[in-house]
# Entry
Amino acid sequence: MTMNKLWRISKNNKNLSKFSKKNFEFNYNGTFIQSSLWILMVLLVACAPAAQQPVKIGAIAALTGNLANIGSEERIGLEIAVDEINSQGGINGRPIQLIWEDGKCDPKEATTAATKLAEVDGVKVIMGGTCTGESMAIAKIADAGKIIQMSSVTSGSVYSGTGPWTYRTNPVDNAKDLVDYLISKGYKKFAMINEQTDFSQAIKKDFRKLVEANNGQIVAEENVDGKETDFKTSLAKLQESGADAYFLNSNSGPVGVLFAKQAKELGLAPLYGSRGYEGAKVSDYPNELEGIIFYSTVGVVNMDTPQAQKLFSEYEKKTGKKSFSPFAVASRYDGMKLIAKAMQKCGEDTACIKEYLNTMPAYEGVIGTFTFDENGDPQGIKYAFAVIHGGKIEPLK
# Structure
C-alpha cells in the first residue's frame, strides 16, 4: 500500500478521522514505518473485506425474574447452535454475533430491548422472547422494522397473528388437550385461579371456551396479581363453588408453587395446572407440588435421537450438568439452526427469509419435524402431559 493511498484511507475513513500526519513517520528511503501497533490494527479493520464482518443477531430472553431458569436454558441452546454454525463457516463466511438483552418476562423491558437492537445494533433477526407478553411487545418492533422474530418457548394463543414477521417453534398453547383430558375424566364443573399476564389470560379465555363447548361449566374464577404472595382469599372462593376440579393457571413456576401450596392447605383437590409449572423448581417443593398434572413440553424431545444426544452431550460439556428444560434448549437450538439455513440463502434480506420460512419443506429438528402455518406457528409439534411426583416432573403414563 503506497503512502498516498494510506493517507487517503486515514483521511476518509471515520475510524481514522481523528488521526493526522503526525501519527506517521518515514525512513530515509521514504518507506512507510508504522508509528504504533494499534495504527496497524485499525487499518486492518478498515481494509477488512465485508464478508468477514459479523452477522449481528439479537437475542431476548427472561434472563432475570421468575422465568430466569427457563431463559437461561434458552440462552445455552442458542449459544450452542451459534458455536456450531460459526465452526462450520458461519453465514456465507461471516460469523454470527449474538447481542443479548434481558426481557425479564416484561413487555416494557422487551420493548426497550427490541428497540435498542433494531435502532442501535441494526439487527435483522431477533431470537426471542420467553414469555408471551414479552414476545408480543417485540413483535410490534419487528413488524414496524420488517425484522424477523423467532421465539422458542412463547406459547400463548394471542401471539398468533401478531404480524407477518413473527414465528415460533413452540406449539400454540390453547389448553385443548387439557380440557379434553378433564372431560374424559368425567369432570363438568371447574374453578380456576388466573395470573394477570398475557399468557395466563389467554389460557383463561381458551379454557372457558373449550369447557363450555363440551357442555361443562366454569363455576368460579379469580384473577390475581402474581406479584402478591397470599392467594388464600381467592382460593377460598373457589373452594366454596362446588367445583369438580381446580385449574391453577400461573404464568411462572414460582407463582404456581404458591397457588399449589395454599390450595392444598385449604384442601382443594384435584389440582391441574398450566405449563407454567415447567418453570417450577419442583425438587425444592416435593410435598407442595405432589400429584399436580399439567400439559407441558416435558417428554416432547425424543432424547434417544442422534440429534438430541449430540445437543445434550454438548450441553453437559458446557454446563457440567443435565438440562433443566430440554425443550427450551432444543427449541432455541432448532430456531437458530433454521434461521441460519434461511440466511445462507437470503443473507439479511428479511423478505426473502420470511418467504423461505413460509414455504420451506418440513424441518427435522431436535424438537421434532415441523413447518409453519400462516400465523408463523409450528405444525407437527404437540404438547404432552406431565405429573409432578417425588420432586420430579415426569411424563404422565
The chain has 13 helices and 17 strands. The longest strand covers residues 217-224. The domain at 55-171+302-381 is CATH 3.40.50.2300 (Rossmann fold). The chain has three domains: 3-48, 55-171+302-381, 176-296.
